Each structure stands twice: as structure tokens, then as C-alpha cells.
């Protein structure tokens, strides 16, 4: 099973679109709210060297932004 993580915030429109896309494609994911979780926010900046969201991690590969084509490729959807 693939491990999917999304770093997001409630006010991020692209984050909401990504999570909706996951639901439509029956992709299970774990969400980290960087607006309230300082440790995860710091982890996000350490991984990407920026504060952009969403950041999606699939089996260790990091995608910055909601890139449907890349998500489809990595998740086989």
C-alpha cells in the first residue's frame, strides 16, 4: 500500500482540491495541518526549503502543489 501524506491548511484552496481528488480516486492519505502543527510546519520547510502548500508526499517522493498529472502517475490513477 502506498503511503500518502499531505501538508495543508484549512484556508488553502489547492489543498482542498487535492484532498477532494484523493477522495474521488479512493486514495487514503494522512493530513498534517501546518497552520496549527509547528513541528510539521518546520518539517515541511526543511523538506522543501519553502512555505508553499499543499505539499504531497507519496512513498518518499515530494510534490509541491496540486499536480494532478504527477499524482496520477505516482498513484497509478
Automatic annotation (TrEMBL):
Bilayer-crossing regions: none
UniProt cross-references to Pfam families, sorted A to Z: Glutaredoxin
Family matches, as InterPro entries: Arsenate_reductase-like, GlrX_YruB, Glutaredoxin, Glutathione_S-Trfase_N, Grx-like_ET, Thioredoxin-like_sf
GO biological process: cell redox homeostasis
Domain GST N-terminal: 2-77
Matches recorded under Gene3D superfamilies: Glutaredoxin
Molecular function in Gene Ontology: electron transfer activity
Domain of life: Bacteria
Family (UniProt): Belongs to the ArsC family.
PANTHER family in UniProt: GLUTAREDOXIN, GLUTAREDOXIN-LIKE PROTEIN NRDH
Name of the protein described by the UniProt record: NrdH-redoxin
Amino acid at each position: 500500500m502506498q503511503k500518502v501524506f499531505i501538508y495543508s491548511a484549512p484556508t488553502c484552496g489547492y489543498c482542498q482540491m487535492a484532498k477532494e481528488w484523493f477522495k474521488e480516486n479512493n486514495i487514503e492519505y494522512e493530513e498534517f495541518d501546518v497552520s496549527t502543527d509547528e513541528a510539521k510546519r518546520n518539517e515541511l520547510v526543511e523538506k522543501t526549503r519553502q512555505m508553499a502548500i499543499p505539499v504531497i508526499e507519496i512513498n518518499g517522493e515530494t510534490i509541491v502543489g496540486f499536480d494532478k498529472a504527477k499524482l496520477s502517475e505516482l498513484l497509478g490513477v
